[in-house]
Amino acid sequence: MQTNATTSEPSECLLRIVEAAPQVSRRYQFFLWSQADLQRWLPHKLLVCGAYHREYRDLVFDVFNSVPISEAALRGLQSAREPAIMAAIKRWHLRRQQPCWLHRDELPAGDPVADMMRDAGYQQLLVHGMSRPGRPEEIESIFLFGSADHVHEDQALTHAEMLLPCLHTTYVRVHTTERQMIGVGNAAGPHAAGGAMGSTARSGGITEREREILLWVRDGLSNQQISEKLGISALTVKNHVQKILRKLGAANRAQAVAKAMSLQALSMPSGGPQGDRNL
Q1: I need a surface site. Which of 3, 21, 68, 163 has the fewest CB within 10 A?
Q2: In sequence order, what are the residues at sequence separation of 6 or more whose Cβ sits closer than 8 angstroms to the Cβ of residue 136?
Q3: The predicted structure's pLDDT at residue 278
Q4: DSSP labels for 135-154?
Q5: 30-66 CB burial, b ≥16 within 10 A, e <16
Q6: How many CA atoms lie within 13 A of 269 on its CB side?
Q7: Residue 4 contacts by C-beta under 8 Å, 6 or more apart in sequence?
Q8: For residue 227, what is the enclosing H or E element?
Q9: Predicted model pTM
């Protein structure tokens, strides 16, 4: 379980989050940032971020998850037209754009996101966002946090309110940078490949074997330990890792894992190998 900010100088924790934010402009950097002091401030295993895309005139979403989720649940978190996102936005508006909780039982029975929440032990998702000044229905950004950790509700809502300006500014910068790199003229639109911005193209070309090795790297295993798990030589594992680093443009193993996770490259197909392993 993550260390709660209330036990470790919360003002200093928030200050470090804010000070680190200006260096964040890419998706993988955002993921690394969200896993540092932000985890102490607002513990989570799932972070859904949506930002308004002016060319598409719609919200476009990214999902940053550190526990495996199904493809159906992933799709359910990538569009403002999916039941879970619609319910989150509705709840947020009913609370007059204040941080609030979306409880699992508020989602339709059989909804993939509700199933994912049950499997991951989430009773609720924390929801907060930002609208245009004077136009509460026009959402600029929206964020959903999921965690099975027992965090006092009032404290978590207060922390979300305090964090929002920094979270909004940082994610919108990332959203804009990534959109420019992909190209705003992409004819596929915001809902292609499940609604994320070019999510298929963002996989980095990682093969199934490389994904399997990345899962073990994520768990902190050495090349020798991975070779014993997979029944291949340590040299073969080393070669795979070097290919992964090149494909993802990563400087080291930790950065490769962060990039792969932010690209959804570690999401396992339903029923696939190690699909039920948590981080």
Answers
A1: 3
A2: 93, 96, 97
A3: 35
A4: EEEEEEEEEEEE--S---HH
A5: bbbbbbebbbbbbbbbbbbbbbbbeeeebbbbbbbbb
A6: 4
A7: 40, 43, 151
A8: helix 223-230
A9: 0.69
